[in-house]
Amino acid sequence: MGLLDGKAAIVTGGAQGIGRAMAETFAREGAAVVIADVNESAAVKTADEIVAGGSTVLAVPCDVTSEADVEAVVARCVADFGALDIMVNNAGVTRDATLRRMTLEDFRTVIDVHLQGAWLGTRAAAAVMREQHSGSIINMSSISGKVGNIGQTNYSTAKAGLVGLTKASAKELAHLGVRVNAIQPGLIRTAMTEAMRADVWEQKLSEIPMARAGDVADVANAALFLASDLSGYMTGTVLEVTGGRYM
User: In whole angstroms, how far apart are CA 120 and each of 112, 140, 169?
Assistant: First the structure.
């Protein structure tokens, strides 16, 4: 018996990194999973690898800034699996630069993918979940949305906005049985973070009371908790998965 037996989930940006870890975890716990990703070939590869373990996983191409794409992914999940129980708005990009050097295009791109994408995902998922009178929506924020990072006025703005989106939509949907929560990861060991200069990595590591970087599994397990009935009386919350950094 898995914590998500009989559930259907969508993970945007699920082809790699934290998104992939969540898709794998949900599938292992019994959910049928849709991996929605703008990189179709990577999504198919990831889905095939998880399916090889005996799970039910579907890859669907999706640009989360496209209203039509997001609504199509939700419709595909319902058509193939009969429901949508878990929606994870995880897709993201970075376009780091200082305020002086950042272009308007780079600012808008990050806002559009993270914030508009999550709003579209929340709205489309809620349309299905409100009819079911159940469902869990999980928005992937970041500790950068709490404290702000130099060189990330776009990313920090988007991730802070996701907290507002989470709380406002949680209030709108609570009486319909739909829960909306957010996760703020800290320093998580991924291909992107491991590309940091060694001195930058060590400086960030020194700020963590638990004295280690997180793994993608640490974030995936928090998402599993929010997706499952274990968190059935939680909505509008923000879980920090940071090892105590910036507590």
Answer: 10, 14, 12
